[in-house]
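Bumping my old thread because nobody answered last time. Still need a sequence for this structure:
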């Protein structure tokens, strides 16, 4: 059994990580266009770097929740037959114990050099323009995929989706592509598709099953049911 799980902002929100946009279309008081595009960085790098420095520091104040831990239990049984693809840039999956995780939108705890294109683990601030450990230039930026940029590891993700037995979407809006199209790709390839979300997503009609509720309740229940059927 090959399972691909897509996680979005909803799973981390239950740990206290703010969702990407609130009801006003803002991200923690900022317009997305001001902090999440290459153009924003070129126009006001200090503002953008300070914004992500604050988000990186805030990770120390949150912890993985029951949904993250349930996926670890599933990985303990399925091993490499489970791949977690996350749109989130936090490290909660890893802190819970997940090992097979693809961060398609990058990671807060990583920096990207605009000169040598090297990616390096990063926990400190970037606002003071520290030198790149690889080339020495002071052109490090957050290793985060901004609007207008191509998500990471798309070839690998689509390949795994094409052979998956089950595709599960957790805590996603179904509004941001290319992730919003994963369910259609998986379903065309023969996968069983399941949605676990607070409310039906914009792509809810593509799922064989759609369940509404908190991720911390739905995900452990789904894992229990899946493992019970596998081990019966």
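Sorry it took so long. Here it is:
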């Amino acid at each position: 059994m090959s399972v691909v799980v897509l996680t979005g902002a909803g799973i981390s929100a239950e740990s206290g990580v703010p969702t990407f946009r609130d009801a006003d279309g803002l991200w923690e008081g900022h317009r997305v266009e001001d902090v999440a595009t290459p153009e924003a960085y070129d126009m006001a790098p200090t503002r953008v770097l300070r914004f992500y420095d604050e988000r990186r520091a805030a990770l120390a104040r949150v912890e993985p929740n029951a949904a993250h831990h349930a996926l670890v239990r599933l990985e303990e049984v399925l091993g490499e037959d489970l791949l977690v693809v996350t749109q989130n840039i936090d490290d909660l999956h890893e802190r819970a114990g997940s090992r097979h995780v693809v961060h398609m939108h990058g990671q807060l705890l990583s920096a990207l050099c605009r000169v040598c294109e090297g990616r390096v683990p990063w926990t400190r601030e970037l606002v003071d323009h520290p030198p790149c450990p690889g080339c020495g230039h002071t052109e490090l930026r957050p290793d985060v995929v901004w609007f207008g940029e191509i998500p990471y590891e798309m070839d690998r993700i689509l390949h795994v989706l094409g052979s998956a037995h089950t595709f599960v979407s957790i805590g996603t809006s179904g509004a941001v592509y290319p992730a919003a199209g994963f369910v259609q790709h998986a379903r065309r390839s023969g996968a069983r598709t399941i949605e676990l979300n607070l409310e039906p997503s914009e792509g809810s009609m593509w799922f064989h099953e759609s369940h509404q509720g908190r991720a911390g309740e739905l995900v452990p229940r789904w894992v229990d049911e899946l493992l019970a059927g596998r081990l019966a």
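The first helix runs from residue 9 to 13. Let me know if any region looks off to you.
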